[in-house]
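Progress against Task 2.4 (sequence-to-structure conversion) is shown through the following example record, which the project officer requested during the mid-term review.
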Amino acid sequence: MEAPIVRNWRNSSGYTKGTYYACIFNMFLIFFGYRLLRNASASIWLTCDAETCAIQITPPGNVGTTKLEFSRNQIVKANAVKVDKDHVFQRLDSGTKPRQNTKYKKYKIHSVGPDKDGFYDSYDVALRPPGQDQDPNEKDLTPLEPFIYRSDESGIIFIPMRKYNLGRTKRRTKTMIMKVQSYTSQRRNQLTMKENAPLSWQGTVSIIFGMFLLLLTILIGQFVDETKTVGPGVRRSSRKVPANSRRKISNGKMH
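Structure tokens generated for the chain above:
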């Protein structure tokens, strides 16, 4: 015996079927865009107060977030560096400022892409392992090993802060380095550094178009066949009462 929902679907009109197909497609488009945004989401955050610091690293994809809290004394310094497109360290950035041309508009330091050698502007933060001063806030930095891209002979490790968002201006890089220097020299007791990966434009477009088309389908679509007695969402008509059993009212009297 055929199921009622299958029979109703088979007897529905093509316009009604197309409406349901469009709704399913639009919801899939929204879900697809959400997955793209989620998989492309990545960030490296470093927040510090007067005594401790906390680093939070979220790689792209559903890998999980690495969190570690340590002493502020374990931050050594920050360096401006040059890296390739895969964020492999190439050299330290000397940071020489170009001469301004007074004949034209004021020169702005701006580098959103690679330089003439194909390298990008970036910066890293140097962290030292726990020392012998018995500071209870100092922690082992082993959980950060997957994100270390270079180290030195003294055991100092370097965390690339722009691992997931190359292409920012050089002025911002210098600003972040100055913040770290002020914090390590005890001139400030708060430090916040947040580097987030850019959003996926494919995911954003998919969600916007999916929601727009879904609303349009709901407004102009047909979910009920008005001309058919069967079909998805068709309301049952009220049962007719035989004519000989009706009560006629005429002139306020009942016959």
